[in-house]
Amino acid sequence: MGSLLSSFGLNCGKEEVNEEERHIRANDRAFNLSRHYANNAIKTSKYNIFTFLPLNLFEQLQRLANAYFIFLLILQLIPQISSLSWFTTVVPLVLVLSITAAKDGTDDYNRHKSDKQVNNREVEVLIDGQLKKEKWMNVQVGDIIKLETDEFVTADLLLLSSSEPLNLVYVETAELDGETNLKVKQALTVTGEIGDSIENLAAFDGEVHCEPPNNHLDKFKGTLTLNGEVHSLDNDKILLRGCTLRNTEWCFGMVIFGGPDTKLMQNSGKTKFKRTSVDHLMNLLVLCIIGMLALLCTVLAIGNTIWETTEGSSFTVFLPSTDSSDPVLSGFLTFWSYVIILNTVVPISLYVSVEMIRLGNSFYINWDRKMYYPRKDTPAQARTTTLNEELGQIKYIFSDKTGTLTQNIMTFNRCSINGKSYGEVFDFSGQRMEITEKTEKVDFSWNPLADPKFAFHDHSLVETVKLGTPEVHAFFRLLALCHTVMPEEKKDGQLAYQAQSPDEGALVLAARNFGFVFRERTPESISVVEMGEHTTYELLAVLDFNNVRKRMSVIVRNPEGKLYLYCKGADTIIYERLHPSCTKLMEVTSEHLSEYAGEGLRTLALAYKEIDEGYFEEWRHRHYVASTAMDNREEQLDAVYEEIEKDLQLLGATAVEDKLQDGVPQTIEQLAKADIKIWVLTGDKQETAENIGYSCNLLREEMAEVFIVASNSPEEVREELRNARKKMNPRSGDEPTFIKSGILGKRSQVMQEEETDGEYAMVINGHSLAFALQKDMEMEFLRTACMCQTVICCRVTPLQKAQVVELVKKHKKVVTLAIGDGANDVSMIKAAHIGVGISGQEGMQAVLSSDFSFAQFRYLQRLLLVHGRWSYLRMCKFLRYFFYKNFTFTFVHFWYGFFCGFSAQTVYDQWFITLYNLVYTALPVLALALFDQDVNDRWSFQYPQLYSPGQLNMYFNKKVFLRILLQSCYCSLILFFIPYACVHDTVRDDGKDIADYQSFALLAQTSLLITVNIQMALDTYYWTAVNHFFLWGSMSVYFAVTFTMYSNGMFLIFTSSFPFIGTARNSLNQPNMWLTMFLSTMLCTLPVVAYRFLFIQLYPTINDKVRHKARQAKAAPPPTPRRFTRRRISTRRSGYAFSHARGYGDLVTSGRFLLRPKRTRPALFPVVDSPVTSTTPQTYRTITEEDESRSPTSE
Amino acid sequence: MKNEGEMANRPDNTAFTQQRLPAWQPVLSAGIVIPGFVLIGLAFIGIGVALFVTSQKIQVLETDYTGAEQGSPCYDCRDTSVPCVCRVNFSLSKLFEGPVFFYYGLSNYFQNYRQYGSSRDDDQLSGYTSAFTSPSETCAPYQYNSQKKPIVPCGSVANSMFNDSFKLYHVVNGQPRPVPLDGKGIAWWTDYNIKYRNPTVNGTLASAFADTVKPINWPRPAYDLDTTDPSNNGFQNQDFIVWMRRAALPNFRKLYRRITEGDYANGLPAGNYTLEITYNYPVLAFDGRKKVVFSNVSWMGGKNQFLGIAYLVIGSLCIVMSVVMLIVYAKYKFPEDEL
Questions:
Q1: Which of A72, A188, A549, B75 is the most exposed, fewest CB within 10 Å of its CB?
Q2: Vertex A282, ends A3 and A947: CA angle to 5°?
Q3: What is the topology classification, in CATH, of domain A360-404+661-740+748-866?
Q4: Considering the domain A409-659 in this protein, what is its CATH number?
């Protein structure tokens, strides 16, 4: 019903006032009120106590399903047509309406509560020359309000003044766009001068003209007229509702947009509704069923016309019917009568049940302890409750890298100093030990400035530092000096670093712990505490990093007055610039580097040199010239840098681990086994992405080939793609083959899967991707990419991420899933069929737009292989059974039509018809859809292949539907004709006639109910107590209700409603009846058993095999998943690969950072006191089932 | 890092939330299915044999007396506008074991026609006098007569009540000797005692029917249905109740009388019989047929060849199927290790 629920979602209540321009006067409530702008009260609720019932009913009745019920009800009120009593429709309708109303009511109550809470927040408002506490909802446009640090911004404000120099204000916009880094806003100087003087503020009479309310978060256009002068206003001067004030003692602002006009509110409530493929199929099927219904009714109506002509007209002796004069009219009326009777083929209660099942299965996700992340106290969350079964059909996963596959945490793991490698732990026999959480950490307590969260395990390095070995000191001094990190002193005196890239932060942090503490920087100096001694270096130049140079250097003057150049960079680059005297050291270090790279670590080589004062002065001059050159400044600077960075002395190398999230390689291996293709879409550089690809098992050494597409022209890209495809499948034709689309012909072309000879992967860079995504090449790209097991796209923009997803969605008939953690993943999360957000990392934006969220990538395998698979299985079983039971139920009427003069006489008792779907068969199928599992979660992990039937849509498709239709036809024939044949010419054991209508109805309906319940039993794989209870309970309830309704008491009270009095008592004591029921139920179910048994023997599915295996292994639990051995990677992938962009060099030297952060910096960059400080480094650990299942007992 | 202790959001560890509910997981294995089919097959055959044998023992005698064909005894009575009596003779070569049940049967008669079936008023039939003055709408056109007087009992079902009557004579030594027919207890107990109630009015039953008219086709009003037995009148008339329990199928028979008394308590002895039929009920207009049926019953009810044969056939099919499945299982038993 989701689709139906949504269609009347949020578009109510908002009056569109066409506002051309907003004109506000500060401190002039009278004027502002006259313009009728919305005040700051918000209302997200839809109803109040009085409007709830009428409005909600009205909304509900607009839904297709309910409208259908109403239509039926109207039909039933026409006496000529009414073939069923009104209650058969009213009872389910009321039930459905009240369930939905209850749900809507609770939702709205919660909205009321949150509205009230928000509206009643207090803020200081300047009223009549003084600050008064006022509730948010009473704040008017034009009011001047005072905000203090860590307060939420009340409304969209024009910033007037602030406590900070230059009228700056820092805000966090997490609630708006999910970014947790601070943004800076700056007030106009004219208003900033007012400061916090209340008199001046009260006298402030500026007039604002600006754009009407809109939802562009990053745009604002307006003017401020103050004392006759016009100042232009832009987004920089606006504080938006939803932001939080940070690091700013106070600020004053004037309300521009209030409540519903704020950009936050204007942006809310526009969620694109996603529907599952099962939904689409269901809609199609419902259409088919309606067609079928029409067909059946037409057949019966024609039958009626013929019957009336030939028989009915002469039967008038006993039935002088008013319309018998016109058989055609009678046929017409019969058509509608049969529409009423046969309406149960269009399973309207289906939508309600489907919603309930999805909801239930969503709860399982929320409840799953194995997807709960204790470190962050984050459980998994199903934010959309309507997509569960789609989780069992995923074919493509689009993943972000940073924060999703990796933790975005760099840890300083190893280093090589002067030819000696540190960082590994050996036991007494000299054997290398695996580092686990339990391994003893180095004690840094000797260093008061050490960060307690930093972990290192090799004691020898500390000893060496303490001994004062000069090379080791130089090594860490370099790390403490050569970087663009900015320090931040927290209130409690804690030192925190703000690093542009986390790996740089990791290196500085390492230096800090080893006694070289970077304390402070100014544009001209760097203060370091070296082994407890305060030392200040004069910073003479920063030779910044860029992609070509792949290194950065600083030139400093130490307290002794000597000049040094410190350089770190990619090993190959540094090696080219070393002094020949280092050759020997170079060889040793090279070995170490290879070793580090083999472990998937990111390496850097470090070098230094002493510089001659005179040479430096000369160089400095040239540097100045280059840096002020108008043309080719970059090239000139590079050349100047090149000059001085030579003849370096090698110090050593560092190895930083870009920590993968726990269990990523295993998860990817599992998903690959489940035949899911994984595409990584990352903003990173190609090298970085490749590195990660190898370390998390996406790219494997045993792959036949990894294609790299990195060309700069469309032709080359096309050529590369084509070559790659030919290599994968030489038989692949030039033109893609398309699958003919179905009857309802979607316009898009659906591409066929193509075979490959082995496993391939493709890495494509940003440039090439841009070409590949162009209209004329996208098919070429898609074809090639889809033949690869893995695709890695580097340097992808958020827009391209969405484009890639859309491309696959459009031309492949597959279900896609996008997973990411940051604001840049939002577009792809929204575009994919299923969006998954990693919660707890970079802000909330990705989570907010996702359908499912959890804290760790590794939970994805549980989400898909267990929850998704089960959800899909359950949903399909549910649908199959649901259609089966309704068809069987309904078709019996059709057959009966031929024997009752097509008069729309029902076979069953009307109460049975009313209660069949609601009571007698509702719960067992619900239990099936909530509890069934083919095999448990361990087996699901053991055999990821179990996932593939979902991808191929095998459990519920048109073919399956047709089979159900046939089965239902067969069963309904049996259920009508067996009782017919059994009773038509016989009598009861007391000689009374047996074939009266009421006994026959009871016979047919009891047989039907037993049959569908046996079918349910055959479909149930997993019999919990609940299944038993519901199944047996339903049967008992049926008999109890039947005996009650057919009892004397009910008849005496409601005479005309329960005419079946005594039928149960009189019929169910007949052996004949029971023998007939037994016969018909067996005839309905035995063929199913035989068919299934033979099918399992002849064509066993993977499912059958695993179930068989599971059964055999019942005594012994399945083998624990094999330990994942970390593979050593032979190729060396090292280099200064991790920096995302040009460094902070300019900023650091310019001193501008003191005023505001660099604006052009992409928002992605990790954050202030980098996660390094907030998480202990996690050592590599195999995630085993035992590990977690044991945890509950350890509580 | 948060303290490991505070795990406020940690989901509960119950078998239900973690989907670890203990469960029985049956599979359709050969060990269950094949023996199952054999057992069911044997059971079916057993039941089938019993049913078939029992059914064979039951005696049934059917005679069509519609009189559609020229030369048949009731041919002259086809025109029902005038009262007519016809006689059908038959002879029994051996004892027709008692108790013998006497049915009348109608063919091609659509008592299950929807509008026909709903054309009645259960309130009226339960004796609520309010429904006497204003019968239910569903009774139309037999709700009121042309003078706007309410018809009681209203509706098509009542109006079309079967009104042929029968007398059975045993011809002994050329002399017809009436066979006593028992008309009591031929309707369901619940119908006779609960569903159909005569109005409780002081005075005579007839006075309750004041201001109402009898159904158009009826010769006498409801309170005077049985002229011989005053207690068998009104709605609580056995024949009426039997008729009102409408048939599910267009060919049906209804119990008319039982032969349980006097010399015939043990059945109808061999000999010649004459059935005297008062022919009133018109069926030829719609190609209907009328018949009388004499039958006795067993534990399984009346004669029913179909049930026994069906059980036998299906039982045999089950056995055959189990053999097929056994062969398939032995031959194709799916490889266990290959996954």
A1: B75
A2: 105
A3: Rossmann fold (3.40.50)
A4: 3.40.1110.10
Residue A90 confidence (pLDDT): 82
Average pLDDT over residues A863-879: 94
* CA–CA distance, A160 with A962 (Å, rounded to integer): 70
User: How does DSSP assign B116-179, residue by residue?
Assistant: HHT-S-HHHHTT-THHHHS--GGGTTSSB-TTSPBBSS-SHHHHT----EEEEEEEETTEEEEP
pLDDT for A1152 equals 43
Predicted confidence (pLDDT) at residue A367 exceeds the cutoff of 90: yes
Q: What is the pLDDT of residue A1137?
A: 40
CB of A34 within 8 Å of any CB in chain B? Answer: no
Which of A87-91, A815-819, B1-5, B286-290 is predicted least confidently? B1-5
d(CA A445, CA A459): 13
**Ranges of each domain in chain B:** 32-58+301-339, 61-296
Boundaries of CATH 3.40.50.1000 in chain A? Answer: 360-404+661-740+748-866
- Residue A401 is assigned to a ligand binding site: yes
Residue A1065 is which amino acid? R
The boundaries of every CATH 3.40.1110.10 domain in chain A are 409-659
Mean pLDDT of the region A626-655: 85
Choose among B251, B282, B302: nearest Cβ to A987. B302
Known binding residue A185? Answer is no
Residues A900, B333: C-beta atoms closer than 8 Å:
no
Burial (CB < 10 A; 0-12, 13-18, 19+), residue A1103, is buried
Cβ contacts below 8 Å, chain A against chain B, sum to 311
Chain B residues closer than 8 Å to A997 by CB:
111-112, 117, 245-248
Q: How confident is the model at residue A1163 (pLDDT cuts 50, 70, 90)?
A: very low
Catalytic residue at A909? no
Q: Which chain A residues are closer than 8 Å to B324 by Cβ?
A: 1094
Min Cα separation A225/chain B (Å): 50
Residue numbers of A between 791 and 830 with CB closer than 8 Å to B: none
Q: Which DSSP helix (H) or strand (E) runs through A536?
A: strand A533-543
User: Under an 8 A CB cutoff, do B21 and A933 touch?
Assistant: no
Phi, psi of A657 (to 5 degrees): -95, 125
Give the count of beta carbons closer than 10 Å to the beta carbon of residue B277.
24
In 3-state terms, what secondary structure has residue A163?
Answer: coil
| Nearest-neighbour CA in chain A from B118: distance (Å) | 10
The reply, when asked if residue A684 is annotated as ligand binding, is: yes
Cα separation, A664 vs A861, in Å, equals 10
What pLDDT, in 10s, does the model give residues A144-169? 899 888 888 888 889 988 887 778 88
Which of B29, B191, B306 faces A982 most closely, judged by CB atoms?
B306
Confirm or reject contact between A1092 and chain B (CB < 8 A): yes
Q: Taking CB atoms and an 8 Å cutoff, what residues of chain B touch A1082?
A: 40, 44, 314
Using the beta-carbon criterion (under 8 Å), do A990 and B159 form an inter-chain contact?
no
Rg for chain B, CA atoms, rounded: 30
Give me the residue from B11, B250, B311 closest to A368, CB to CB: B11
CATH topology of domain A144-268: 2.70.150
Q: How far is CA A48 from CA A44, A118, A604, A849, in A?
A: 12, 18, 64, 29
Q: A interface mutation test: which of B19, B191, B246, B253 has the most A CBs within 10 A?
A: B19
Q: Where along chain A do the CATH 2.70.150 domains lie?
A: 144-268
The tokens of A231 are what? 């100042």
Which range scores top for mean pLDDT: A774-778, A1025-1029, B173-177?
Answer: A1025-1029
Residue B203 has pLDDT above 60, yes or no: yes
pLDDT, residue A1169, reads 34
Distance (Å, rounded) from C-alpha B126 to C-alpha B244? 13
